[in-house]
């Protein structure tokens, strides 16, 4: 099995795609036994779709590839701590593992703002690990927002 650093480097490449499209640079991959089932990057602006987060797009692609909405035994890698919407979709898909890079102090729903995965009412548990390639994942976001502020697009 490839290590989390490898998959996070692949997610960072997807985040760069988002940045080139002037979208918040977040990239995500759904992996099963070292195979990419789905990938995505943030595209809510370009798609005019508030749900077009990197994680959602990766989940949709993986589900289509498997022809099943349940993504059992998969791992989702994403460059930024997921929001509540994305975590909800991961729970519905029955993702087994979540690995993320940067913490999100404004909307992170794993532990930064909310602790959704700790809710005792949930009938599915996702194992998670944060802070993988944290510096690189944080830097791409900092650079993006610094550039946006400099041109007055915030």
List keywords for this structure.
alpha/beta, five-stranded mixed beta sheet, 154 residues, 5 helices, 5 strands, single chain
Question: Short summary of the structure?
Answer:
It is built from 5 helices and 5 strands.
SS elements, strand count: 5
The overall average pLDDT, rounded, is 96
Helix content: 25-40%
Strand order in the sheet with the most strands: 2-1-3-4-5
SSE order: HEEHHEHEEH
* Global outline: globular
Radius of gyration over all CA atoms, rounded = 15 Å
Cα-to-Cα separation, first versus last residue: 41 Å
Count of individual helical segments: 5
DSSP strand (E) fraction? 15-25%
Main pleated sheet: 5 strands, mixed
Which structural class best describes the helix and strand composition? alpha/beta
Low-confidence stretches: none
Notes on the protein architecture:
The chain is globular and about 45 Å long. It has helices spanning 4-20, 44-47, 54-66, 84-93, 134-150; strands at residues 27-32, 35-41, 75-80, 97-102, 127-129. It has 154 residues and is α/β, with parallel strands linked by helices. Strand 3, helix 4 (84-93) and strand 4 (97-102) form a beta-alpha-beta unit. It is built from five helices and five strands, in the order H-E-E-H-H-E-H-E-E-H.
Write the layout of secondary structure elements.
Layout: H1 4-20, E1 27-32, E2 35-41, H2 44-47, H3 54-66, E3 75-80, H4 84-93, E4 97-102, E5 127-129, H5 134-150
Parallel strand pairs: 3-4, 4-5
Antiparallel strand pairs: 1-2, 1-3
Helix pairs in contact: 1-5, 3-4
